[in-house]
Write a structure and sequence with these properties.
With 454 residues, this protein is an all-alpha fold. It has one domain: Growth Hormone, Chain: A. The chain has 24 helices and no strands. Keywords: Membrane, Transmembrane, Transmembrane helix, Transport.
């Protein structure tokens, strides 16, 4: 992997800032995205102890890890994005980070399912202001031909946050309980929010000062929606990302439960072997899943951005066709991981599956930014992310939970979850089909970069 500088080399920085500041901005946004997914995903490794203490079903777990977070995230994302088209995006990001961190901490003090669900709703409210404003800010700094790499770099926060949530969440929960694990995950965000607000500058003000005149206003919501409605590539890309998120969130929410139910003895034996008996099963599983999902996602998001930027110079459709091919290749690995009886092989099969399924992050995010005018970028990102979270995070885990509970009636909870994962995995043919449809109009709908206004 290259250094961070490789991903930021082509940043179109405001004249008053040097290369080191540009790299700092991307690193700070990466850290903020990392914290978002740390707080969002830590419940996955804590699902079993939470289920036992609060006496929940798999359907309730799916609602807790998915829909409770995604509901208000989806509906607040658009108005916050409209604000981000005009107001200081860094301020929006900093306030959002402080809000979701505080609600994450509140999750650790919940004494009932209702309290925990309400706190998760609060986490979603906070995170609604993060990525749309961040995507818009990054797109101001980075020219179109490097945008997939830069947004892929930012998206590395997804696997990094997931990895940390699984690994440290499992270890802290083993030692101190699931409540302490959640509080520890939420606390750093308050400090980072203050640091970001004090040290990151919104490029919009600098661009205005450099030009010596006011920036054209962002289009009204009606005009923005009319623009988006005319972009078929945008909607097909959004559907591809949403269906991919449906599978990712749905499966990731239950991988820990799957291994603890179906490979309990194998996990315990591997944990004892590699740690000399110092790690319990959940602690080892958190580290193992964190490394597998995290490293797979890091490599996938990095390679996806770099390779698509390279091939898109000759054919812009590479931004959608390469991720489509990668997703198709990932499907057999998922099915092998679910059905093979050998614990270590099942774990290892997740690595290439995750790598290939995260190939799309930078390219699809860049595609969405490339087909809209600068003044509509945050709005487009908010709609994309809202769809991803409502369909993916909102419906993915609960759908897997419903299938799991349904199969458990005749097969038992272990086999029920296995078949719940397998049946939903078949939906993996949907993202490639959507990306192929996006490729048909992508070239004609791409917008040439002009003076940045968003």
């Amino acid at each position: 992997m290259s250094t961070p500088g490789d991903n930021t080399a082509a940043i179109a920085r405001p004249p008053s800032h040097g290369a080191s500041y540009g790299r700092y901005v991307l690193w700070m946004l990466l850290i903020i995205n990392f914290l978002a997914f740390l707080d969002r995903q830590i419940l996955n490794i804590l699902a079993e102890p939470i289920k036992q203490e609060l006496k929940l079903s798999d359907t309730q777990l799916g609602l807790l890890t998915g829909l409770a977070f995604a509901f208000l995230y989806t509906f607040l994302g658009l108005p916050i994005a409209r604000l981000a088209e005009r107001a200081n995006r860094v301020g929006i990001i900093g306030i959002s980070l402080a809000i979701w961190s505080a609600f994450t901490i509140a999750c650790g003090f919940a004494n009932s399912y209702a309290q925990l669900a309400l706190a998760r709703v609060g986490v979603g409210v906070g995170e609604a202001g993060c990525s749309p404003a961040s995507h818009s800010l990054i797109s101001d700094y980075v020219p179109r031909e490097k945008r997939a790499s830069a947004l892929g770099f930012y998206s590395m926060g997804v696997p990094l946050g997931t990895m940390a949530g699984l690994a440290f969440g499992g270890l802290i929960a083993d030692a101190y309980g699931w409540r302490v694990a959640i509080v520890v995950a939420g606390a750093p965000g308050i400090l980072v929010a203050i640091l970001a607000r004090l040290t990151i500058r919104d490029t919009r003000r600098q661009h205005i000062a450099d030009r010596g005149k006011a920036s054209p206003p962002a289009p009204a919501l009606g005009l923005a929606m009319r623009e988006l409605t005319s972009k078929r590539a945008f909607w097909w890309a959004a559907l591809a990302a949403s269906s991919s998120a449906f599978l990712a969130y749905g499966h990731n929410a239950f991988y820990a439960s799957f291994f603890l139910r179906n490979h309990a003895q194998g996990i315990a034996e591997i944990a004892a072997t590699v740690s000399g008996g110092s790690l319990k099963a959940s602690g080892f599983l958190g580290i193992a899943l964190g490394l597998i999902l995290g490293l797979g996602g890091l490599i996938g998001s990095f390679l996806g951005g770099r390779m698509c930027d390279h091939f898109a110079k000759r054919d812009p459709r590479a931004n959608v066709l390469l991720p489509a091919g990668a997703f198709l290749v990932s499907l057999p690995f998922v099915l092998v991981a679910v059905f093979i009886p050998h614990t270590l092989v099942a774990l290892l099969m997740l690595g290439p599956a995750i790598l290939l399924k995260t190939f799309w992050y930078g390219p699809i995010f860049a595609t969405v930014q490339n087909v809209v005018q600068p003044g509509t970028r945050a709005t487009a990102a908010a709609i994309l992310l809202g769809m991803m979270n409502l369909i993916g995070l909102g419906l993915g885990p609960v759908t897997v939970g419903i299938f799991s509970d349904a199969f458990a009636g005749t097969l038992g909870p272990s086999e029920g979850l296995r078949w719940g994962l397998a049946v939903t995995a078949i939906m993996g043919i949907v993202p490639p089909a959507c990306l192929w449809m996006a490729s048909r109009t992508l070239v004609s709908e791409t917008v040439e970069d002009g003076p940045s206004t968003a």
